[in-house]
Amino acid sequence: MLCGLVVGLALALASQLRWAPARWAVAVYVDIIRNTPLLIQIFFIYFGLPLVLVKLPAFASGLLALTLYSAAYNAEVFRAGLEAVPNGQREAARSAGLSGWQQMRYVVLPQAVRIAFPALGNNLVSLVKNSSLVSAIGMVELMFVANDISFNNFRSFEIYGAAMIYYVIIILALSRALALVERRVVARAAI
Description:
By secondary structure, this protein is mainly alpha-helical. About 85% of the residues lie in helices and about 0% in strands.
């Protein structure tokens, strides 16, 4: 998620540039990633890229696919957050003599992140659930281990039930943590 946040923020900032090719490239990237299934992206990186570039290990392929996938969604969330900051804030920063970079860093970005935080939290929860798809390329994670145990013991109901319970526990804990952080971010913004 951290990689997806950094790349997503960079893409969102690029989508705000006046240079049209940068905006177009970001829009094409986001459209391609958001309109293709994550499993196909994982397979393309793991099985397709070695035909034209270099073969990546399962972990690197899974990490790259999940990063690219989350970055596209995060880019849209950050873009919406950036566009939701009132123009008056930018004008006030400009009239205070801040450079374009300072305006973005000290005025616009903090507000945009506060606005985008709930949607970014949803993307994180979604990414954790989607991480189970990397088991399809042999990356060891919860579903891979569940499949391995199930194939050896033939006790699918118990094994997949336990995996489901683990996911519920992980997602509930993550959701609660995000809710606490969100309350602090909103409380801090009110001060």
